[in-house]
Amino acid sequence: MRAPDVSTQSLGVALIALKERLFKRWKEFVAKDPKRDPGLASKQNWRWEAGRFYYKKEDREKRGISKELEVSFERETAIMINEVWKSDKWANQVPVASGFVSSRGDRKAALDFAHYDAETKTVTMFELKWASNGPRYAAFELIRYALMLTLAHEQGPKNINMIHGNWSEVKKVKLAVVAPVEFYPATETQSLIQFQNMLSAELKKTKLFAPLGFTDFTFRWFPKEKADRNWENEAELRRYFLDDYGLLKIV
Prior knowledge:
The chain has about 250 residues and is of the alpha/beta class. It has helices at about 10-30, 55-65, 70-85, 105, 135-155, 190-205, 235-240; strands at about 90-95, 110-115, 120-130, 170-180, 215-220. It has one domain (about 10-245). It has seven helices and five strands; from the N terminus they run αααβαββαβαβα. The longest helix has 21 residues, at about 10-30. The radius of gyration is 18 Å and the shape is globular. The model has no long low-confidence stretch (mean pLDDT about 80).
């Protein structure tokens, strides 16, 4: 997936074009087979689980699971959520378009992390980055995933097979790119914050995710050493992923 070229058109126009292109692909996808279930092709889409694909401790040791930093960070975080805290507020590696998009062209199209606030019925969708691509690219990845959720809700719960658990209760969406602070070039911090604020404003203005509401988009950071050291508790994870402390700032 390539981020829209916003240097030659307004951001609002680019966002609307992205939505129209994705929804057009969906209509073409359904048109190929009139008998096709009007869901997004797989019952695995939008499951709400944490740590589903992560081995238990003894299995991890036997299999020598990858030590690559990003994988290590995501794995250990998912383990803490699922095995230690046993929290149902978080989910990870959520397929959003299995059977609809090409796995070759769109990788696995899976959301890295999500958090659900039952009181406000707000889901925060997270794109985890380490070194690949860039902050703006990651932002448009998230927008595409949120549009897939929008499409699911537009279809209506009686006609789709793929909104599970907390996803079916969502009324509002928040988006956040999370990465080690080193991922954000120090010389670009101010321009990234400006882009973040402009993107949030345009997403609200265009009501891109209607019928779902939209709260905000943010760039967030966490200490790189968390790839090698577990979170102390869920409150520490929230500090970087959800609270103001984790917001990208000019220092």
